[in-house]
Design goal:
about 1000 residues; alpha+beta; five-stranded mixed sheet
Amino acid sequence: MGNETGANSNSSPVQGDIADLVRAMLEQNRLREQQMEQIITKLMDNQKTTTPMMLPNLTKTIPMFNGETGDTDAAAEWLNALKTAAQLNGWPDESTLEARRSYLEGAARNWYLSHMVELNTFAKFSKSFKAMFMAPEEVTETWKRMYERVQQKNETVFAYFHDKVRMCRRLKLSMSETKKMICVGLHSRDMLSALMSNGHVREEELMADIREYNEVSLIRGERFRSTSTPSRQLLAAKSTSVPKVGTDKQNTITSSRIKKELRKTYDGPRCYNCQLTGHVARDCTQPRRPLKCTKCKLEGHTSKYCEVANTPDVSLVSCQTKSKFMYYIKEVRINDNKKTVRGLVDTGSAFTIITKTIAKSYGLEVRPKTVNMYVYGNAQSIASYGETQATINIDEVSELITLVVVDDQIQQYDIIIGRSFTDCENVTFIKTTDQLQFAYCMMMPYQEGGVPYESTSKQIVRVVGENENIPANSMKMIKVNAGDHDVEVMLINEEDTAIRLNRDQSVGVIRGGRKSTENNHDVKTPITTEMVKYGSTLSSDEVDRLVHLLNRYRECFAFNLNELGCTDVLAMNIVDDGKPVMSKPYRASASERETISRIVQEWKEAGIVTETKSAYASPVLLVTKKDVDARLVVDYRKLNAQTVRKVFPTPNIDEHLETLHGATLFTTLDLASGYLQVPLTETSKEKTAFITPSESGQFERMVFGLINAPYEFSKLMQRILQPLKNKVAMWYLDDILVPSTSFQDLINRLSQVFDALREAKLTLKLSKCHFGCTEVAYLGFMLSAAGVRPGDQKAIAIQQYPKPKNKHEVRRFLGLFGFFRRFIPRYAEIARPISDLLRDNEQFVWTETQEEAYNNLKDRLVSKPVLQVFNPNADTELHCDASSVGLSGMLLQRGEGKRLHLLHAVSKKTTSAERHYHSSKQELMAVVWSMCRLRPYLIGIKFLVVTDCQAIVHLNTQKTLNPQAARWATLLSEYNFDIKHRP
């Protein structure tokens, strides 16, 4: 018993330890489970609960964009829509780029596909898209679009308001300006009055008033429509009781009774647009409904303006017009073409109208232009297809006019002659009972010239024509004979019955009268054929057309100082140091003083010279020339010495000659006292004051002798004729050259030149003008279709030029002959013996060498060499040569028959250093110098260089180590040429 008890007592501690271990393990498991729950709970808390919802399809908000309208607003709207969709959907760049491709079409899609590689990010795409389709619009264009924006017929006032506000905000307009711009574009007058009577400081206030006005207008319309319902019900009730077929008069309601019943309940005007009462269509705020024709059932017009219903029977119209108005139909020639077209003379038409087919058949250049033409009444306008220019010839009357081109179906006739032709200056038409005849304007009565007579004699005036009739109480120009002359006089019939005059019937007597003392400066003498210098190849018809053109521009010619023009394009300003210059008058003989006084008096009467109180005083002198009237010249040397000089380029003669290719007729124009047609500024007038032995005065116009006069005049001509340069005319100071390829081309070009001169208020001297000549003298040259040669007067001067006797005369000789050096190949080499006389420390000794050179140069120029006119399309060659004496080059072109013709010859002397160059180097220098000298001709064309130096042939193929030769080769790199060796 004792042992068992001892054993049990020894085992109890062990069992207690085990229990503790079990409890500890359970506690750890519990803690571990608790930690796991905490972790799971934390994870669950961090996760967002997704609530299912329906998202809108934002891709539907992206419109298609084609980029073909040029509308920057549409491009900006499309790009913003794409950005918005990308942001709301959270698209990455790849999805956005795919979306842009899907919503581009047309030109925009082609642009994207061509730049797709470099536009690999949306930022690059957006930047490039803005640069291509969203170019910044100018403020003036934005303002113009905003100002022209008005409420359209089918547009609600709300749509108009918000669009106009958007445009005003782009311009950053104030609220008052925005309101004004919105109101001027409203269609409803009543709404405009209502809005302008209230003050608005915010857009919301203005919008609220518009909305309130619109709601009141609609409510009022509904109310008045509802009050008129009983009448309509009455009409319906009565109409239902009326049998469709019957004879019971008591049950029949006529249309007049219906209208009478409706009139009883009239509640104001009814709107044609919305059918509501209380307002008319022009004040309706609802969208405009389209007009509909009741005859053709088409929209866009009413029956009153229906072309289908109102189109007359063409055959009937032709039948009626044939007997009564046939003389209004004329045969018309266009641009001197022998083929004629049928034209209708319509003096009520402001335009001359030609059909598209006829314009194209004559090869007329039609420029796109819309001209809205209206007929009588309220008919819709007709838009033109374009416009063109052509010379219209009717009854031998020709005028260059602008024609409006329309579609063929617009008019029945090939051309309608309107006032653009009939109102031309010097064009008239005479209408009788059965005839309509065009003619150039006749001389005004008493302008054609008088009949010579002796004061002591009398001459009987007799009728020349047969059976001349003068209607009752009328006047008529009758051709009569007075002695040996036939003239037209105006006869007046004051009787109430017509008068018939027979041939040789006496109608009056010419007797001597007193000389008229009236000033007839305002009556301009017409230009006659005898006054005009024209080419011998012109026909009589062409001369008549030329004289008519000159009379058409009669104000462009001055026959005396009173007709002299005065431009308003510019005024000459003289700037000096402000110190007046004063001189005593030069002594003059009695006859010279009389001439000076006469010229000054003429200037004063013409307003060119006025009285003066100026402190300036420059003397005058009289210059006389052989076969030329004396000229009064002011000696402005002292004034010029203190005047600030101006610089302005003058035209180059070479530029003139380059434009003559293809010309066959030449015209030269000369201004009448060109300097005197330029006014002076007020501060400059007193500086031009002059003094004569008997009086003084100051100029109102620019005068010869002022140092800056040539530059001011060059500037004037540049401004006036610059648009015509190289295309129509060329000029040098007051000399104008007009080359032309035909007579019609001559007329067209002269018209453009005369228009420019007339606009500038300049006048020409007719006696110095030559028209339509095959050869003319211009700036010392004779110009013709064959080419250019020295002028006849220059050739005579060269032939009569005496042998130089000193160095001064050598300089004069070389100056005269050097002007024509282009005509003489190797001129520098030939003239070197003479030019060497001008070297320093060289005594003047005239030997046989100089004599030979002198005679050689004279013979070459007296033979009248001819230079061909440059043709940029012809085969061109440059022949070069060199020696120790000089360099030379000849520009040649192949003409007809493949023969070479000289265009220009250049040459120069070699310097003392250049004489010792190797011959190959001299030849190369000749090529380089000639090409640089003739650069205006050679640049831009391919040409052939011909030389007798074999070494230069390899210039383009072999490199050179010589620095100077390398620099020369660089100079030649801009030319396109080949080199050929000439043995």
